[in-house]
Amino acid sequence: MNDWSEALHRVSKLGPGTKFVGDLLGATIFPQVITAVASFNASLWEQTGRVVSDEPRAMYNWGDAGLTFWSPNVNIFRDPRWGHGQETPGEDPVLAGKYAASYVRGLQGYGGNPLKVAACCKHYTADELDNCNGVDASTLMPRLANKTLRIPLMFHLETVLEGKVATVMCFTCADSNLLPNTSEGTGSLMGTLFPIAIQ
């Protein structure tokens, strides 16, 4: 897949799917996700998603953008030393789920057929666990079979799946019990599952 880009709080120039050339010099920049979520304003999050997706849709019409965006980042922010905390909705799984569902609705458009752009929630379950005293996502994943441990790690993404997100990026994909289209109690995945680390 060669047409992806990021759209966490704006259309990013990172990734092969977006080109700022000619009259397209940049995109509207919104506050970092963790700051926007502090407003507790779901209609603001959805409106931000709409504006963020309007711009690449226009760029696509000019041939300067793809329509797949690896956003939002739905990891739960557990440790301030993790370098991507500002991209996330924070530490509350309920608020993270509400934010992500609203932002995805804004990005993809109402009804979702056809999609305005394809949102990709990332990363499904425990990507934010950098190595700490020998524990990281690869050593934690086998322990997540216990439903008690899975609920706080997956609730936020289940909310987004119910909202019909187009794609999900999984961090560690070896455990079929953790995948969104097979795990007990999760919503169905509308589109694609992108693995980035298969054990």
TrEMBL record:
Q: Does the keyword Hydrolase apply?
A: yes
Recorded hits in InterPro entries, A to Z, give: BXL, GH, Glyco_hydro_3_N, Glyco_hydro_3_N_sf
Q: Which UniProt keywords apply?
A: Hydrolase
Question: Which SUPFAM superfamilies does this entry report, sorted A to Z?
Answer: (Trans)glycosidases
Organism superkingdom: Eukaryota
User: Key word Hydrolase present in the record?
Assistant: yes
- A molecular function (GO) term: alpha-L-arabinofuranosidase activity
Q: Which Pfam families match?
A: Glyco_hydro_3
Q: Where is the Glycoside hydrolase family 3 N-terminal domain?
A: 25-170
What does the record list as GO biological process? arabinan catabolic process; xylan catabolic process
Protein name (Swiss-Prot/TrEMBL):
Glycoside hydrolase family 3 N-terminal domain-containing protein
